[in-house]
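Good morning,

Attaching, inline, the C-alpha coordinates for the sequence recovery test we're adding to the shared suite. The designed sequence is right after.
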Protein backbone atom coordinates (compact mmCIF):
# COMPACT_ATOMS: atom_id res chain seq x y z
CA UNK A 1 0.00 0.00 0.00
CA UNK A 2 1.26 3.45 -0.88
CA UNK A 3 2.53 5.59 1.99
CA UNK A 4 0.56 8.76 2.71
CA UNK A 5 2.58 11.89 3.42
CA UNK A 6 0.46 14.09 5.69
CA UNK A 7 2.93 16.99 5.70
CA UNK A 8 5.74 18.27 3.52
CA UNK A 9 9.02 16.50 4.27
CA UNK A 10 10.68 19.90 4.03
CA UNK A 11 9.20 21.06 7.35
CA UNK A 12 10.55 24.61 7.28
CA UNK A 13 9.19 25.30 3.82
CA UNK A 14 5.94 23.55 4.69
CA UNK A 15 5.32 25.64 7.82
CA UNK A 16 6.23 28.86 6.01
CA UNK A 17 3.88 28.06 3.13
CA UNK A 18 1.12 27.09 5.57
CA UNK A 19 1.43 30.56 7.13
CA UNK A 20 1.27 32.10 3.64
CA UNK A 21 -1.93 30.24 2.80
CA UNK A 22 -3.44 31.29 6.13
CA UNK A 23 -2.69 34.91 5.25
CA UNK A 24 -4.22 34.46 1.80
CA UNK A 25 -7.25 32.83 3.38
CA UNK A 26 -7.75 36.00 5.39
CA UNK A 27 -7.02 38.48 2.58
CA UNK A 28 -8.91 36.86 -0.30
CA UNK A 29 -12.37 37.10 1.33
CA UNK A 30 -11.82 40.78 2.16
CA UNK A 31 -10.92 41.56 -1.45
CA UNK A 32 -13.74 39.52 -2.97
CA UNK A 33 -16.35 40.90 -0.56
CA UNK A 34 -15.16 44.44 -1.27
CA UNK A 35 -16.20 44.02 -4.92
CA UNK A 36 -19.36 42.05 -4.11
CA UNK A 37 -18.10 38.63 -5.22
CA UNK A 38 -17.43 36.99 -1.85
CA UNK A 39 -20.59 34.90 -1.50
CA UNK A 40 -20.55 33.69 -5.10
CA UNK A 41 -16.90 32.60 -5.36
CA UNK A 42 -16.06 31.31 -1.84
CA UNK A 43 -12.53 32.81 -1.89
CA UNK A 44 -11.68 31.32 1.50
CA UNK A 45 -11.72 27.83 -0.02
CA UNK A 46 -8.98 28.38 -2.60
CA UNK A 47 -5.96 28.83 -0.26
CA UNK A 48 -7.12 25.93 1.92
CA UNK A 49 -7.44 23.53 -1.01
CA UNK A 50 -4.07 24.60 -2.39
CA UNK A 51 -2.47 24.24 1.04
CA UNK A 52 -3.67 20.64 1.26
CA UNK A 53 -2.31 19.88 -2.20
CA UNK A 54 1.05 21.63 -1.80
CA UNK A 55 1.86 21.01 1.87
CA UNK A 56 -0.09 17.83 2.61
CA UNK A 57 -3.35 16.89 4.30
CA UNK A 58 -2.32 17.82 7.83
CA UNK A 59 -1.30 21.33 6.80
CA UNK A 60 -4.51 21.65 4.79
CA UNK A 61 -6.58 20.65 7.81
CA UNK A 62 -4.83 23.20 10.06
CA UNK A 63 -5.21 25.93 7.45
CA UNK A 64 -8.88 25.07 6.90
CA UNK A 65 -9.71 24.97 10.60
CA UNK A 66 -8.06 28.30 11.47
CA UNK A 67 -9.01 30.39 8.43
CA UNK A 68 -12.73 30.92 9.23
CA UNK A 69 -11.87 32.03 12.77
CA UNK A 70 -9.32 34.53 11.45
CA UNK A 71 -11.91 35.92 9.04
CA UNK A 72 -14.54 36.01 11.80
CA UNK A 73 -12.50 38.80 13.42
CA UNK A 74 -13.89 41.09 10.72
CA UNK A 75 -17.44 39.80 11.23
CA UNK A 76 -17.44 37.71 8.04
CA UNK A 77 -18.45 34.97 8.58
CA UNK A 78 -20.38 35.27 11.86
CA UNK A 79 -18.65 33.26 14.55
CA UNK A 80 -21.65 31.08 15.45
CA UNK A 81 -22.81 28.94 13.82
CA UNK A 82 -21.28 29.80 10.44
CA UNK A 83 -17.57 30.06 11.28
CA UNK A 84 -17.76 26.97 13.51
CA UNK A 85 -19.33 24.90 10.73
CA UNK A 86 -16.99 26.34 8.11
CA UNK A 87 -13.92 25.55 10.21
CA UNK A 88 -14.79 21.85 10.12
CA UNK A 89 -15.86 22.03 6.47
CA UNK A 90 -12.62 23.67 5.36
CA UNK A 91 -10.49 21.43 7.58
CA UNK A 92 -12.11 18.50 5.79
CA UNK A 93 -11.37 20.07 2.40
CA UNK A 94 -7.71 20.57 3.23
CA UNK A 95 -7.22 17.13 4.78
CA UNK A 96 -9.13 15.09 2.21
CA UNK A 97 -7.65 16.76 -0.87
CA UNK A 98 -4.11 16.32 0.48
CA UNK A 99 -4.57 12.66 1.42
CA UNK A 100 -6.45 11.66 -1.74
CA UNK A 101 -3.93 13.46 -3.96
CA UNK A 102 -1.10 11.73 -2.12
CA UNK A 103 -2.75 8.37 -2.77
CA UNK A 104 -3.53 8.97 -6.43
CA UNK A 105 -0.50 10.87 -7.68
CA UNK A 106 2.82 9.38 -8.68
CA UNK A 107 5.66 11.86 -9.33
CA UNK A 108 7.65 9.17 -11.16
CA UNK A 109 4.86 8.78 -13.73
CA UNK A 110 3.90 12.40 -14.30
CA UNK A 111 3.02 11.75 -17.94
CA UNK A 112 0.42 9.18 -16.97
CA UNK A 113 -3.17 10.35 -17.70
CA UNK A 114 -4.48 9.12 -14.35
CA UNK A 115 -1.71 10.99 -12.55
CA UNK A 116 -2.57 14.19 -14.41
CA UNK A 117 -6.21 13.88 -13.36
CA UNK A 118 -5.34 13.08 -9.72
CA UNK A 119 -5.65 16.73 -8.71
CA UNK A 120 -9.14 17.04 -10.24
CA UNK A 121 -10.34 13.79 -8.69
CA UNK A 122 -8.97 14.75 -5.27
CA UNK A 123 -10.60 18.19 -5.58
CA UNK A 124 -14.02 16.76 -6.44
CA UNK A 125 -13.90 14.19 -3.63
CA UNK A 126 -12.84 16.88 -1.13
CA UNK A 127 -15.66 19.16 -2.28
CA UNK A 128 -18.27 16.46 -1.76
CA UNK A 129 -17.01 15.27 1.64
CA UNK A 130 -16.46 18.82 2.93
CA UNK A 131 -19.97 19.90 1.98
CA UNK A 132 -21.45 16.87 3.68
CA UNK A 133 -19.51 17.72 6.84
CA UNK A 134 -20.78 21.31 6.65
CA UNK A 135 -24.38 20.12 6.34
CA UNK A 136 -24.11 17.72 9.27
CA UNK A 137 -22.41 20.26 11.54
CA UNK A 138 -24.87 23.03 10.66
CA UNK A 139 -27.79 20.67 11.30
CA UNK A 140 -26.37 19.78 14.74
CA UNK A 141 -25.61 23.39 15.71
CA UNK A 142 -29.01 24.67 14.61
CA UNK A 143 -30.73 21.76 16.37
CA UNK A 144 -28.83 22.52 19.59
CA UNK A 145 -30.10 26.09 19.33
CA UNK A 146 -33.65 24.80 19.00
CA UNK A 147 -34.05 25.49 15.29
CA UNK A 148 -34.33 23.42 12.11
CA UNK A 149 -31.82 23.29 9.28
CA UNK A 150 -33.83 22.33 6.20
CA UNK A 151 -32.34 20.27 3.38
CA UNK A 152 -33.36 23.00 0.92
CA UNK A 153 -31.27 25.49 2.91
CA UNK A 154 -28.30 23.14 2.80
CA UNK A 155 -28.70 22.58 -0.94
CA UNK A 156 -28.88 26.31 -1.60
CA UNK A 157 -25.81 27.01 0.52
CA UNK A 158 -23.50 24.37 -0.93
CA UNK A 159 -24.66 24.07 -4.55
CA UNK A 160 -27.22 26.53 -5.88
CA UNK A 161 -25.61 29.66 -4.43
CA UNK A 162 -22.02 28.52 -4.88
CA UNK A 163 -21.91 26.94 -8.34
CA UNK A 164 -19.66 29.78 -9.54
CA UNK A 165 -17.17 28.90 -6.81
CA UNK A 166 -17.27 25.22 -7.76
CA UNK A 167 -16.56 26.01 -11.43
CA UNK A 168 -13.79 28.47 -10.53
CA UNK A 169 -12.06 25.98 -8.22
CA UNK A 170 -12.27 23.08 -10.71
CA UNK A 171 -10.63 25.27 -13.37
CA UNK A 172 -8.18 27.37 -11.33
CA UNK A 173 -6.74 24.91 -8.81
CA UNK A 174 -5.67 22.20 -11.30
CA UNK A 175 -4.11 24.91 -13.50
CA UNK A 176 -2.08 26.19 -10.55
CA UNK A 177 -1.01 22.67 -9.59
CA UNK A 178 -0.02 21.77 -13.15
CA UNK A 179 2.07 24.93 -13.29
CA UNK A 180 3.76 24.13 -9.96
CA UNK A 181 4.51 20.61 -11.17
CA UNK A 182 5.85 21.76 -14.54
CA UNK A 183 8.14 24.38 -13.01
CA UNK A 184 9.41 21.99 -10.35
CA UNK A 185 8.20 24.12 -7.43
CA UNK A 186 6.15 21.26 -5.99
CA UNK A 187 9.24 19.04 -5.78
CA UNK A 188 10.76 21.36 -3.17
CA UNK A 189 8.13 20.24 -0.66
CA UNK A 190 8.88 16.52 -1.15
CA UNK A 191 5.28 15.92 -0.19
CA UNK A 192 4.60 13.21 -2.77
CA UNK A 193 8.06 11.75 -3.03
CA UNK A 194 8.75 8.50 -1.16
CA UNK A 195 12.49 9.25 -1.08
CA UNK A 196 13.94 10.78 2.11
CA UNK A 197 14.43 14.53 2.07
CA UNK A 198 18.03 15.72 1.94
CA UNK A 199 19.47 17.51 4.93
CA UNK A 200 20.16 20.50 2.68
CA UNK A 201 16.43 20.88 1.96
CA UNK A 202 15.69 21.73 5.57
Amino acid sequence: MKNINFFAKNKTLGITTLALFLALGFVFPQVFHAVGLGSAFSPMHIPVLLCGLVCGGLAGAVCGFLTPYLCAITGMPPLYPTAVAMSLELATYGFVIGVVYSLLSNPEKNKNFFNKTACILALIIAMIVGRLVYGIVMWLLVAISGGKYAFSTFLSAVVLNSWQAIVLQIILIPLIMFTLQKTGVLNKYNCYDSRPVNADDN
